[in-house]
Structure formats: structure tokens, C-alpha cells
Design brief:
Blueprint: H1 3-25, H2 28-73
Length: 109
């Protein structure tokens, strides 16, 4: 056999081998294995985040309940106080945007 013919056959073999390795590396079962490994590595951290969030939610709910209960006990208007969970609380007679709180008294001499 001649040298160029041998090189051509060697190149064909290596190309087919490379293609086969590429197909095997990207086979769906390999992709599922990689996905499984990713989930296995990140699941403990996600579970810890979930537990932290649930604990913070319980603490927040307890604090909100305490504040709402304290607001009901305060003497004041007969209407129920605004819910702390409702977002922004508007205080009647309170400072509006751009207004100083408490308002400064102006004196004239």
C-alpha cells in the first residue's frame, strides 16, 4: 500500500471514531445522566433555601399577627386599623410627600 492511501484510510477511521464518540457523548441517556447529576448536586442547597424561607415566613406571620393584635388593643377610632400586610399604611393627618414631618413651626418676630 502506498503512503497517501494509508493516510486516507487512517483519516476515515479516525473521522468515524470521532463521530461515534460525539454521538455517544450526546446521546439522550447521557444527557439525562448529566441532568440527574446536576439535580443531585443542587437539591440539598435548594432544600435548605426552602426551609429557610418557610422559617422566615413563619416568623414574619408571627410578627404581623403581634402587630395587628397590638393595633387592635390601642385606643383610637372605632374603625379597624389597616392591615400591616396590605402594603403602604396611610395615616390620616400624616405627612404627605415632600412635607416635613413633624412640620416645623414658623415664627414671626
Amino acid at each position: 500500500m502506498e503512503e497517501p492511501e494509508m493516510q486516507l484510510k487512517g483519516k476515515k477511521v479516525t473521522d468515524k471514531f470521532t463521530e461515534s464518540v460525539y454521538v455517544l457523548a450526546n446521546e439522550p441517556s447521557v444527557a439525562l445522566y448529566r441532568l440527574q447529576e446536576h439535580v443531585r448536586r443542587s437539591l440539598p442547597e435548594l432544600a435548605q433555601h426552602k426551609a429557610d424561607m418557610q422559617r422566615w415566613e413563619e416568623q414574619s406571620q408571627g410578627a404581623i399577627y403581634t402587630v395587628e393584635y397590638a393595633c387592635r388593643l390601642l385606643p383610637g377610632p372605632q374603625q379597624p386599623p389597616p392591615s400591616v400586610t396590605g402594603g403602604v399604611i396611610r395615616i390620616p393627618g400624616g405627612a404627605s410627600r415632600g412635607q416635613r414631618f413633624p412640620p416645623t413651626a414658623t415664627t414671626t418676630d
